[in-house]
Amino acid sequence: MAKHEEEEGGIAAGEAKAGVGAVAGTRGPQLGAPLVEYFLRLGDDRLILGHRMSEWTGHGPILEEDIATANIALDLIGQASQLLKLAGETEGKGRDENALAYFRDGTQFRNCLLVELPKGDFGDTMVRQFLFDAQSVLVLDELTKCGHAELAAIAAKAIKEDKYHLRHSSEWVVRLGDGTDESHARVQASLDRLWRYTGELFATDEVDRAVAAAGISIDMAGIKARWDTIVNDVLGRATLTRPADGPMQRGGRRGRHTEHIGHLLATMQSVARAHPGATW
Amino acid sequence: MVTFSRDRVFEILGTVPDPEVPVISVVELGIVRDAAQRSDGTVEVTITPTYSGCPAMFEIERDVVSALEAAGAPSVEVKTVLSPAWTTDWIPETAREKLRKYGIAPPGPANDGGLVTLVRAKPPVQCPWCGSRNTTLKSEFGSTACKAIHVCKDCRQPFDEFKAI
After folding, report:
1. Which of A70, A72, A232, B110 has most Cβ atoms within 10 angstroms of its Cβ?
2. Name one GO cellular component term (chain A) (predicted).
3. Measured between CA atoms, how close is B54 to chain A, in angstroms?
4. Any domain includes A218
C-alpha cells in the first residue's frame, strides 16, 4: 500500500470547499467536505453495484434469479438514494440524489473498483456480490452504532436487506463452487480475477480519519478480520481456494476508475441527460 | 375546521390498503408511525419505508394524502422517517390472520439470531393453504421485496411468505 498515494488523493478539488450543510454548527466547517466524500463512497458503491445487478433483469439464468437480482438491485439503489440524498444535503449546494447519480462524470464517482466491473457470467456476479455483501453487512453493523444519527438510521434499515443479500450470494458461491467441475472451475476463475479488487474494500485514508470527528469511526482492521472469517468459511464450504493477497487494484475512492465506468454511466445516465428535468 | 385527532387519522388510514398486499392496511403494516394536526389545519402524517427501494412507498404516500383529503383534511403533509427501522414484528396478529387467509404466510419473529447466517437454518414455513409444514423455500426473493416464494410438498401449491425483517 503506497502511503503517499493515500495521502495525496483524498478530497477532490471540487468537493474540498463544500459547505457544511443542513446541520451547520454541530459539524465544524472543515468537516463538511470529508463527510460528503464519505457519504458519496457509501452511496456510490451501492448505486453502481445496484446498476450492475439491474443488468440481469430479463436475463437471469432462471426466473427466481431474475427476480432475486432485480430485488437486490432495487434494495441497493434505494440505499444509494438515501445515502446520496444525505451527501447532497450535507454538501449544501442544492444537489439532490438524482443530480448526484445522473449528472456526475466518472472521475467524480467514489465507488470502489470491484462494483463497476462488468457483470460477467452469473458466477462472476455472485462471487462479486458475495465479496461485497460480506464487507457491507459488517460496515453497516458498525455504522448502526455510529454517532451520526441519520447515517445510523440508514444503516439500520440497509443491514436488514444486506443480510438477505449475503445469505443469497454465499449460498450461490457454495452451490457453484461445490457443484460440477465446470461450475467449480469457472467460479474459482471468477474469484482469482476479482480478488485483486478486494483490498480497496478495507483501505482507509484521511477521509476516514476526518469523519471520526462526526462520530463515524469505523474499525476497518477489525472488519477485515471478520470478513476473512466469513470468506474463509464460505470458500471452504464451496471447496474453493482462497487466492493469495497480491498487489491490490484501487483508485475508485479518489475518482480513478477502470475503463468500464464510462460505459456504465453512459447507459445509466443517458435518459436523464437527454431529458434534463423530465418527470413522468 | 375539521379536526383530526391522532386516533381519527389512524382510523382513516386503517382503510387504506397496501398497494402490493391489498388485504392489509398501511396502518396494520406499521408503515404509519405518527399523525398530528398543525394549527393551520394541515394534517401531518409520519410514515416509514418498508424496504429502502420499495417502489410502493410513492403510491402509499399518494393514497395517504387522498384518503385524508377525502375525509376533509384541508391539506396533508407526509414525512418519512427511517428510525426506528421498520420491522414485520409491528404487524398485529389480526393482520397476520388476514395474510394467511389471502394465501401469504405471515412473517415469523424478525430476530434472525445473528449478523451473518451463512446457511439457511430456519424451520419450514407453514403453508397458508393446507397448514402443512412439509414445505420448501424456492427463492428468498419474490414478486416484491417483502416476499419470498415457497412450495408446499403436500398440497403442491406455491405460496408467498411475508419475509421477517
Report:
1. A72
2. cytosol
3. 7
4. yes
Q: What's the CATH code of the domain at A110?
A: 1.20.1260.10
ipTM: 0.87
- Nearest CB neighbour to A64, from listed B54, B120, B139: B139
Residue-range definition of the domain harbouring residue A171: 30-240+248-274
Would you call A79 and B141 a contact, using CB atoms and an 8 Å cutoff?
A: no
Q: How far is A201 from chain B (nearest CA, A)?
A: 18
All three cell numbers of A24: 451547520
Report the 10 Å Cβ neighbour count for B103.
Answer: 14
3-class DSSP state of B163: coil
Residue A192 lies in a domain: yes
Q: Taking CB atoms and an 8 Å limit, are A163 and B112 in contact across chains?
A: yes
Please name the member of A75, A150, A152 whose beta carbon is closest to the beta carbon of B51. A75
Evaluate whether residue A16 is within a structural domain.
no
Identify whether the C-beta of residue B81 lies closer than 8 Å to the C-beta of residue B3: no
**CA B89/CA B57 separation, integer angstroms:** 19
pLDDT tens readout for residues B5-64: 999 999 999 999 998 889 999 999 999 999 999 999 999 999 999 988 888 888 999 999
Q: Are A102 and A273 in contact (CB under 8 A)?
A: yes
Structure-block grid coordinates of residue B3 = 379536526
Q: Which residues of A touch B (CB under 8 A)?
A: 64-65, 67-68, 70-79, 81-82, 134, 137-138, 141, 149-150, 152-154, 156-158, 160-161, 163-164, 166-168, 170-171, 230, 233-234, 237
**Residue A54 domain flag:** yes
pLDDT tens for the 280 residues of chain A, in order: 333 343 333 333 333 333 333 333 334 345 679 999 999 999 999 999 999 999 999 999 999 999 999 999 999 999 999 999 999 999 999 999 999 999 999 999 999 999 999 999 999 999 999 999 999 999 999 999 999 999 999 999 999 999 999 999 999 999 999 999 999 999 999 999 999 999 999 999 999 999 998 999 999 999 999 999 999 999 999 999 999 999 999 999 999 999 999 999 999 999 999 998 888 7
Cα dihedral B83, B89, B93, B98 sign: positive
